UniProtKB/TrEMBL annotation:
Superkingdom of the source species: Bacteria
Keywords: Membrane, Transmembrane, Transmembrane helix
The protein's name: Lipid-A-disaccharide synthase-like uncharacterized protein
Lipid A biosynthesis N-terminal domain ranges (all copies): 27-98
InterPro entries listed in its UniProt record: Lipid_A_biosynth_N, UCP028440_lipidA_biosyn
Alphabetical GO biological process terms: lipid A biosynthetic process
GO molecular function list: lipid-A-disaccharide synthase activity
Length: 109
């Protein structure tokens, strides 16, 4: 029974991570790594500040990873993923505009 389960799981994992591996999957992994990095930079910045902060790099990684994930979702024709990433990408662009405006204002002081 456990051997059969191991064979089924092993076959599934082989199919998902080896058989289906192509350039689009690699793009999806790169996109996911960029998207994950946004949380890493936010966490590190918050730890250094001793409070919750959202650094400029958070929005940069969000936009880069989100845009690549949107491209990947469009290729995969996944309507749920497309809807989520399309809205998120707009939000990331808007937050980058706010962050850039704030940076310009601080330089002008």
């Amino acid at each position: 029974m456990l051997i059969d389960l191991a064979d089924i799981v092993g076959g599934y994992l082989h199919d998902v991570f080896v058989t289906q591996l192509d350039w689009w999957v690699l793009l999806g992994f790169v996109a996911q790594i960029l998207f994950t990095m946004r949380f890493v930079v936010q966490w590190v910045a918050s730890e250094r500040a001793g409070r919750s902060v959202i650094p400029f790099a958070f929005w940069t990684f969000s936009l880069g990873g989100g845009t690549l994930l949107l491209i990947y979702a469009l290729y995969r024709r996944d309507p749920v993923f497309i809807a989520g990433q399309a809205l998120s990408t707009f939000i990331y662009i808007r937050n980058l505009q706010f962050a850039l405006r704030e940076r310009r204002a601080q330089k002008g002081l």
